[in-house]
Write a structure and sequence with these properties.
The protein has helices spanning about 5-10, 30-40, 55-65, 90-95, 115-125, 140-150, 165-175, 235-240, 250-265, 270-295, 300-315, 365-375; strands spanning about 1-5, 15-20, 45-50, 70-75, 85-90, 100-105, 105-110, 135, 155-160, 180-185, 195-200, 225, 245-250, 325-330, 340, 350-355. It is an alpha/beta fold.
Length: about 375
């Protein structure tokens, strides 16, 4: 649910209420995510998003202190909210970014759980960064969080981007908080071969510009690629990685930062099984939204769609969610073949596909997808 400021002013809470402030905020997944987390912990709470223009932030914070138990904040409020808080956690202060607020005993305290989401993602994937060279693309708020954690964890951080002046400013800021940090700037064309970790902290590659990458190629020594983007599920940067290189999109980071926010609000500790299940459900929701999004544009490249679906389904060995099974109808370029055909292993070279959701059908398992994936012609598909 997304409210306008007028609706938020009139809203009367009937249960413990939490909200997300941002502008614009139409495509947020936070209400669905937090609802899943509430159910997992047995909490009966309300969570919605509020579209808060920058000029209304002060009023929105005042209303929230009376109606909400806590808040999440996204662009453009993560820094502007500082002036309306009674206290700010030291890490959030160093990062210059607050994404979680806790209202307690008449006070408001700001925290940053983005950094916990990123560090938790690395831990989940078994990635140790100590004494490794890590390249971070970008110098905005997300890149600042990533650089801070990597430098604090003992990595040799290299910041790259199109504007090295901004990259230098970020480097100097991190050094002011972490004097012993190994952090420098580097043009994208001069990245060392020994680079082990590559992280994208920019929006480059996000839908609808999913074919854009912050780097033209990965350093030869790359062992792990992390992209904070989760739409599309396999970004252009991740596609640069050989099959032997582990990759991760930003969906797990999103889940973890939300879980840590609820830990701040309630003291709730989520176990790995709950988080994994929620990640699977959210992956299904993402796959469904991707298909809906592409259906609106009628057609898309078969190989690209299969890559997106295959990655989302591969989050677990058995994915169960409420998403309808999609029938993939091949539209043939040959004018003589007027009728559409259901995709099968007999298919020749498809030109494009039209998605038609069919309700109440079992969602495909990974084994199902593997069989279908094997049937997809290799034209344009990465091998």
């Amino acid at each position: 649910m997304i409210l306008t400021m007028d609706e938020f002013r009139k809203y009367v809470p009937k249960k413990p209420t939490f909200a997300l402030f941002g502008h614009p905020i139409a495509h947020t997944m936070s209400p669905e995510l937090h609802s899943k987390l509430f159910r997992a912990s047995g909490k009966d709470c309300e969570y919605f998003a509020v579209d808060v223009p920058p000029e209304d932030l002060e009023e929105a914070m005042r209303i929230a202190s009376q109606k909400c138990g806590g808040l999440n904040l996204t662009i453009p409020h993560k820094k502007a909210v500082f002036q309306y808080l009674d206290a700010v956690d030291e890490t959030a202060k160093n990062l210059g970014s607050v994404n979680t607020v806790f209202f307690h005993d008449g006070t408001s305290v700001g925290y940053n759980t983005d950094i916990l989401g990123f560090s938790g993602s690395l831990e989940f994937d078994g990635i140790s960064v100590e004494n490794k060279t890590a390249v971070v693309c970008g110098y905005g708020g997300v890149a600042r969080v990533i650089c801070y954690h990597l430098a604090n964890a003992g990595a040799h951080v290299l910041i790259t981007g199109r504007n090295l002046t901004k990259a230098k400013a970020l480097r100097n800021d991190i050094r002011s908080y972490l004097p012993q940090a190994s952090i420098n700037i580097m043009p994208a064309t001069q990245l060392p071969r020994a680079t082990a970790i590559v992280v994208n902290g920019t929006p480059l590659g996000m839908y609808p510009n999913e074919h854009v990458s912050p780097l033209e190629k990965l350093p030869i020594g790359t062992e792990y690629v992390f992209d904070t983007i989760y739409n599309p599920p396999e970004t252009a940067l991740m596609k640069l990685a050989p099959r032997s290189v582990k990759t991760r999109d930003g969906l797990l980071m999103l889940v973890l930062q939300a879980a840590y926010a609820q830990t701040i609000w309630f003291g709730t500790q989520f176990d790995s099984a709950d988080l994994t299940r929620i990640l699977r459900l959210l992956s299904g929701d993402m796959a469904k939204s991707v298909c809906t999004m592409y259906t609106a544009s009628k057609t898309l490249c078969c190989a690209d769609l299969w890559a997106a679906a295959k990655r989302r389904l591969a989050e677990s060995s058995r994915v169960r969610c409420s998403m309808s099974l999609l029938i993939w109808t091949i539209i043939w370029k040959n004018e003589r073949a007027k009728k559409s055909r259901i995709f099968s292993q007999k298919s020749a070279n498809p030109v494009s596909v039209t998605l038609r959701p069919i309700a109440h059908v079992r969602f495909p398992t990974v084994s199902d997808v593997s069989l279908l994936w094997a049937a997809v012609p290799s034209c344009g598909r990465r091998t």
